[in-house]
Amino acid sequence: MRNLLLIFVILFFTPTKAEEDIxxxxxxxxxxxxxxxxxxxxxxxxxxxxxxxxxxEEAEIALxxxxxxxxxxxxxxPEIDYASACYFNRYLESGDTTLLKKxxxxxxxxxxxxxxxxxxxxxxxxxELSKEMPVKVFxxxxxxxxxxxxxxxxxxTTQEYPQHKILELCHSELLSGxxxxxxxxxxxxxxxxxxxxNNNSVKDNIMxxxxxxxxxxxxxxxTGQSRDSVIYENYVRQDKIFNFRxxxxxxxxxxxxxxxxxxxxxxxxxxxxxxxxxxxxxxEIYSVLGILSESEVLxxxxxxxxxxxxxxxxxxxxxxxxxxxxxxxxxxxxxxxxITFFPLGNIKTPFLDDDFLILKNKTVMVPKKGKSTLDYxxxxxxxxxxxxxxxxxxxx
Length: 396
Prior knowledge:
The protein is α/β, with parallel strands linked by helices. The protein folds into 2 domains: 17-142 and 246-394, no CATH class; 143-220. It contains 17 helices and 10 strands. The chain has helices spanning 2-13, 17-28, 55-67, 82-94, 97-107, 117-130, 147-156, 164-175, 181-193, 195-198, 205-220, 227-242, 255-258, 270-276, 318-321, 328-332, 373-376; strands at residues 31-32, 44-48, 74-77, 135-137, 248-252, 285-293, 297-303, 309-315, 339-343, 379-384. Strands 1-9-10-6-2-5-3-4 form an 8-stranded mixed sheet. α12 (227-242) crosses α14 (270-276). It starts with a helix and ends in a 12-residue tail after the last strand.
């Protein structure tokens, strides 16, 4: 009986060679981002993490700092539209925190968990970094809402603009809380019909074209066209104008947008499209996955009957923080701090095996057979004991 018990212990509690190889690799290839900045020299560095946890923003700033060491400036792509990017650029130039707060609230219409103080502080830190290396924000995502677009169109057109009355009507209706989608269709269609007449009444034709493109996409998107394909088309359109390859690019978007290879149960993500359509080779894009451990995320804000903010709730269980999806246990034993960086593609890496080793739950995300971890991502940041992002309404 004792011998049987010993065999049981050996079989079930002794690490396999594969597990030992992973542990040895992670021990030898890790960086405490609290103490050391990694040097990442790639045309594109991407970062993705479950939304709504405060230390994720600190990890992002650490990654951005790693790009500053060799580049003249940084092109920054958060999960926002073109008009929002224009206003975030104004914040970086002016330091106007009222404008910053307004844009974070606007961004919250898309990702409510990001409408918080940690994101606000991230942008303030980004502005400080931009004094050492200029940062320019680009918005290539689908339109969040019409407000920023109408405000910018009113700025860059004169009273002689043929559609100026429609713009003023849209502005007035927005202030009243009314739907303006029908007026937007009229505005875009009339603008296209009167292209030649528009020229003398538009102060910035490049901005006008990009604004109108997003407005048109808000009601003309092809049937079955994915959000990522629109993001890709917007990237290509703006690349022709701004030549993105000239500067380091940092992209911060959700997980599904940032994996290099698509999963069996989802469409191709934006980063994957850049590779599949041969705009970049896979080794030119460095995709970093943030994994939360023992952490919380902002979940919902609560309001009274009059619509006034009165509080918020958080989530800390595995599904909402991603710890039921990603294999944080694999990393926790080798963490150096609450923000530890693990590059997965160094010499003698075990992450080339035909399995997505970082992925624990293969039903939420279904990897393709024969694809390794490194087909999807290049590195992991383990983020531990991270408090939830606090709503910006709590800002004193």
